[in-house]
Amino acid sequence: MTPVDRLSATNLLRIVIILPQRNQDAISNLVQDIYDPSSTNFHRYLTPAQFNERFAPANADYQTVIGFAKTHGLTVTRTVPGRTIVEVDAAVADIEKAMHVTLHLYQHPTEPRQFFAPDVEPSLDLEVPVLVVRGLNNYAIPHHISHIGNGGTPATAMGGSFPWGTSNSIYMASDIRHAYVPGTPLTGAGQVLGLMEFDGYTPADITAYEATNGLPNVHIQEVFVGWSGPNNPNNGDPEPGVDIDMAIAMAPGLSEVVFYYGNNNPHADSMLTEMADPTQGEPLPLQLSSSWGYPLDAITDTAFVRFAVQGQSFFGVSGDGGSYPMQAHYAQYVTAVGGTELAMSGLGASWSNETVWGNGQPPGTGEAHGSGGGIVTNVPIPAYQQPVNMTAVGGSPVWRNLPDVAMVSDNLMGFLTGTDGVQQIESFSGTSFSTPLWAGFTALVNEQAAALKQGPVGFLNPALYAIGLGPNYSSCFHDVTVGNNTWSNSPGAYFAAPGYDLCTGWGSPKGASLINLLARWSGAVWVDFNYTGSLQTGSFTNPYPTLAKGTNAVASGGTIFIKTAGSSPETMTISKPMTINAIGGAATIGHQ
Prior knowledge:
This protein is α/β, with parallel strands linked by helices. It folds into three domains: 5-21 and 56-134, 2-Layer Sandwich (Alpha-Beta Plaits); 143-365 and 401-519, CATH 3.40.50.200; 525-589, no CATH class. The protein contains 14 helices and 32 strands. The strands form ten sheets. Strands 12, 13, 14, 15, 17, 19, 20 and 23 form an eight-stranded mixed β-sheet that branches. It starts with a strand and ends with a strand.
């Protein structure tokens, strides 16, 4: 591509220098163990401090990079406890000299704008390893894909309880809960949900949504990871505000929504780092959602792995372009969320049926909408997907398939204040909004798990796929078997099918059944004959003191680990298959 000009030498840029984590093989092995029900590390998550202690780059290396930046006239604006990123501000001339590049301007091939990029890959005169430098180009910028209903009337009347337009009704928060979590008292109490955004929202839109839907005012903490100003309300962008609405609609008892936002190309990595290791006083969110597409690099995947190691659930939008080979942010540790068209009985009273969300229009027409699905051809198929017969549904037995799950993504009620300052009720659609709904649903699961003295569920996919392939599938999921996400000349053709498909994954949640199963999703049962604590849950930290309690609690075909050497005079009858391992020394059971 031929440049059209040089980027002005006096322009100021923010650059992010990213260092690799230590012990990558150990991280890979640990995350596999944490989600292996037979492992002694199952669901034994690390705290951010523990993760940093084991895997952060060496402090000497970090200080060397900081010193390099200062020596070359780059102003260090942000460092992090995990020592993976150094943010710097500098003039283009200083950046070019420090990194041995020349920044040119180019005409974007598909958008009416120019972008800047270096002529060669950056080279830093450093002996310590640097993973990547972000911010040297703005070819790809974060974008959302939500839609506002046209003409004041949704395309179809599907049974929502809020009257809108001349003859249709759209979905309120109570409708969503009636469809997916009917009768549950769970509200997400005590849980913190984080949203990754690249634009601001109007607070009055959120309070209007809460008041209209009879919801409490959930506290929103804004965490800005950017460099040109705080939240920009009244910007006409529906995405951030409606993301907040959907999270609160599903989990109205959340203790807090943490609104992470930035406004520049490098800040996807910076936000992901902040979400994993908070530095601005916010609590660690256990459920995270992103409804944006954004540039990727080598650290993006490491952030998703870190979330899994720390017991955080990350949900990503599958996209609204329908059937196409996705190349978005979907390594194996992101739960990809597709969209459905929901029909309800009695104006929001109860779930009736669901079909694939889509209208068959190709991307770029201005009318495109359809649950994103496809094959990520640069990510090998994860272990949890390998037992699924992907070939039968047009998927790949070799590469990652999308989505994993789905939820309603059309005719959703919300408020939007435009650039003119006028607030209006609108109907919204997009997998952008089914994604925070799933994060809110997971807050209910984690609330239930906490009540059961269990830890958070963490990365959901291993459990979701095990349930999908097991005997409890029909009681835990609405299996969407009608519809498709194809469009004219689409490179893929994916159709709804029984079980898993590349339109809606396993489908949408069936309330208490899925909540209870996920909350109780556990690995091996632990027994310690020497344990005297009053809290006995069979976990590694709070084991049972007798084998009899362990055999009663373990699932059929499950595993019991006896932690320490010792003996127990008990006798029992075992009537289900199980494996019993003594890992701390010889263990004696029964009278000798």
